[in-house]
Amino acid sequence: MKQLVIAIDGYSSCGKSTTAKAVAHLLHYAYVDTGAMYRGVTLHLLEHGIAFDDLPAVEQVLKDLTISFRRHPQTGRNELFLDGANREDDIRQMRISNSVSEVSVIPQVRHALVAQQQRMGRKRGVVMDGRDIGTTVFPDAEVKVFMTADMELRARRRQMELADKDEHVPLADIIDNLRKRDHIDSTRAESPLRRATDAVLLDTTHITISEQVDFVIDQVFSAL
Ligand code: C5P
């Protein structure tokens, strides 16, 4: 069967990664969480005390740091590794969410990560979620979905995800973080978050995860 690229873009906490993972599983496709890669670079810069505007140091990190994904043998979860160490839980912390959009505006960071994402998807048969997949990483993706949802619902979802990891954050702080990230992500000069002209819009406010998955699968069948 023809191997496609499925691009799932949209705002934070709309259910992109849950949907993308389930679609990849059903189709036996690879799954790439591009947000995790921006989070990984952010974690590394913070841990090494590298200022985001120290461009020579940031460029050196982009050359030296190895970012990869591995599938957990028991849970099947796709986990982010930095230089061979599992950092999946660390990159999900609120301190990373609070800084990641500042790192993802840096053109050098975007160029390096977009190039790596293009290599990861070059054989196609991949579901990739992020902000610029359908516009910049794979403008020729056969399926493009742009996801959105009501702000309060997005914040409640993020709050539950954090609580599952024992991080208890007031709803107002999460709403503030999501608003700031949406703003920075949509207004940056380099590959801003926007709906590709040929992307189908999916508002997840009133639908279940399985309905979201069915919606994407329907798009896939129409593209085959
Ligand atoms: O998807 P997630 O919320 O984990 O993404 C974290 C951040 O990474 C986003 O708010 C955005 O700043 C950045 N990002 C990006 N381009 C992507 C994926 C994520 O700029 N393709």
Question: Could you please describe the fold and organization of this structure?
Answer:
- Its EC number is 2.7.4.25.
- ATP binds at residues 10-18.
- It is found in: Cytoplasm.
- The chain is α/β, with parallel strands linked by helices and 224 residues long.
- 51% of the residues lie in helices and 17% in strands.
- The strands form two sheets. It has a five-stranded parallel β-sheet with strand order 2-6-1-7-8. It has a three-stranded antiparallel β-sheet with strand order 3-4-5.
Keywords:
224 residues, alpha/beta, Rossmann fold, three-stranded antiparallel sheet, 11 helices, binds cytidine-5'-monophosphate
The average pLDDT value, as a whole number, equals 96
Order of helices and strands: EHEHHEEEHHHHEHEHHEH
Strand content: 15-25%
Bulk shape? globular
Strand order of the largest sheet: 2-6-1-7-8
The major pleated sheet works out as: 5 strands, parallel
Please tell me how large the radius of gyration is.
17 Å
SS class: alpha/beta
The fold-level CATH name is Rossmann fold
Quick structural overview:
With 224 residues, this protein is an alpha/beta fold. It is 51% helix and 17% strand. The structure holds cytidine-5'-monophosphate.
